[in-house]
Amino acid sequence: MGLWGLLLTAPLAAVPAYDFPERRPFAGERWLNPYEGWRGGFLKVNLHAHSAAWLGVTAGEAAPEAMAQRYAEFGFDALALSNYHQVTTLEAPPLPMVRAYEHGLNVTKSHRLVLGATEVVAFDFPISTRSMRQWLLDLLGARAALVGLNHPSLRGGHGCADVERLTGFHLIEVHNPYATSHLEWDCALAAGRLAWVVGNDDSHSTREQGIGIAWNMVGAAAPAEGAILEALGRGRSYAVRGERGRMDVHVTEVVQDAPGHFRVELDAPARVEWIVDGTVRQVDEGVASARFLAPDTGGHFVRAVVRTPITELLLNPFVRQGAWTPPVATIDWPVTVAGWLAWLAAAFLTALLARRARPRLRLVGRDQAA
Asked: Does residue 2 carry a pLDDT above 70?
C-alpha cells in the first residue's frame, strides 16, 4: 500500500460509514401547510452572496460594506454574506444581516449554505464519498441553525443520488444564476427529504448584472436573524427569480381550506402550475386566485409554481403527514469498525515492511563502499 497510499486513504478511514435510509415518501391523511395561519407579509432576503475575503483568493471583489449597501439600494430587507469558510460581520450594516458562510473546498462543487453559524467548520474533502458528505452535514448542523445545499445541480455537486439518500439538510437552493435545480428538489421531496426551497443570486461584485436575479420572500415577523431563520426553518417562505430585484407578482396568502384543498392568493394575475410528486397536474392561466384539490391517493407532495413574463415564484410544498417520520442517516458501526481495523492493519504491515527494508539498504551501501 505504501506511505502515500495510507495518507491518501486516512480521511476515508477516519470518517464513519453511514447507513442511509431508503426512500420514505410523505404519507398520512393530513396535509402540512407551511404557511398555515400566516398573514404578516413577506420580507425580501438574499442568503448567498460573496464579498472580498481571504486576501482576494476567493472570487468576491467588493468590500462587505459596499455589497451590503448595494442590496439595501435594491430594496432588500436583510442579507447574508456567505463567504467561503468565513462568517462576515459588519459593525454598522445598512440593512439587517444574517450570519452565514458557504462551506465547500472541493472539485465537485458540493457546497453547503450554513446559516446562523456559531462556529466555522474549516476543512473539507477535495473529493468525497457519500458518507463523507453526510458526516459534514451532521457536523455543520450541530454548529448552525440551518444547513442548505447550494446549487446542487452544478457539476453534479449534490445530484439526485445524493439528495435521495442524505439527511440533515433543511434547505435546497433551486434558483441560482449558475444552475437551477428543480429536478434535485423534486428528487429530495419524492424520497421524503423535507427540504424547503431557497433562491439566491450568488453575486460576487456590486457591478454584476446578476444582483437581484434570485432571492427569497420570507414570512418573518421582523427583519432580524432569529425571526428570519425561524421562518425559513418552518418553510414559511418562497423563492423568486426576477429581474434586478424586481418582481411583478407577490403571494399574499397560501391556505388549506379543507384537507387537501389548497388555495394560493396573488396580488396580480399569473400562470399557476400545480405539481404533484414532480409532475404538473393542473395549470391555471391568468388568475389571481388558484385552487387545487389533491388526489385522494398517490400524491405525496404538492407544490405550486407562479409565472409571469419576468417572474417565477417557487412555493414550498404541502406534504402528507401522520404516517411519516423524518429519515435520519445513522452510522453503520460494523462496517465502520471493520474499515478502521483494515486501515490499522495496513498501516502496521507497511511499517513492518519499511523497518525490514532499512537494514538491507544499509548493507547494500556498505558493500558498494567496500
From this structure: no
Sign of CA dihedral 154, 159, 160, 162: negative
- Give the residue from 101, 363, 44 showing the smallest Cα distance to 218: 44
Distance CA 147, CA 215 (A): 17
Q: Residue 370 has what pLDDT?
A: 42
CB 90 within 8 A of CB 68: yes
Q: Using 50, 70 and 90 to split pLDDT, how confident is the model at 9?
A: low
Q: How many CB atoms lie within 10 A of CB 233?
A: 17
Q: How far is the C-alpha of 85 from the C-alpha of 101, rounded, in Å?
A: 6
Q: pLDDT tens for residues 300-325?
A: 999 999 999 999 999 999 999 999 99
- Non-local (6+) Cβ contacts of 284 within 8 A are 271, 272, 274, 290, 291
Kindly state the cell numbers that stand for 222.
Answer: 421582523
Q: What are the extents of the domains in the chain?
A: 1-17+332-370, 23-331
Task: Scan for cell 486501515, then name that residue.
Answer: 343
- Contact call for residues 238 and 313 (beta carbons, < 8 A): yes
Instruction: Name the amino acid, one letter, at 193.
Output: R
Residue 191 Cα distances to 31, 130, 140, angstroms: 17, 16, 22
Tell me if the domain spanning 23-331 has CATH number 3.20.20.140. yes
Q: What is the pTM of this model?
A: 0.92
| 213, 241 contact by CB (below 8 A) | yes
pLDDT for 13 beyond 80: no
Pull the grid cell for residue 244: 434586478
